[in-house]
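_Backbone structure tokens_
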Amino acid sequence: MASETFKKRQKELQRQNRQKEKALRRQQRKEEKANRPPAEDGEDPDLAGIVPGPQPRDW
């Protein structure tokens, strides 16, 4: 019986640790986003350099 309680407590501690790590990662991303320089000319950095239309074949 005691081992079940111990396992349950360990599981809860692991869950709490994961939640703390997730909160820390969220805070870091928020700070990085705030400190990121603005994109030039309003261009989306994810789409920079992409050419619309049919793409050339690899071969």
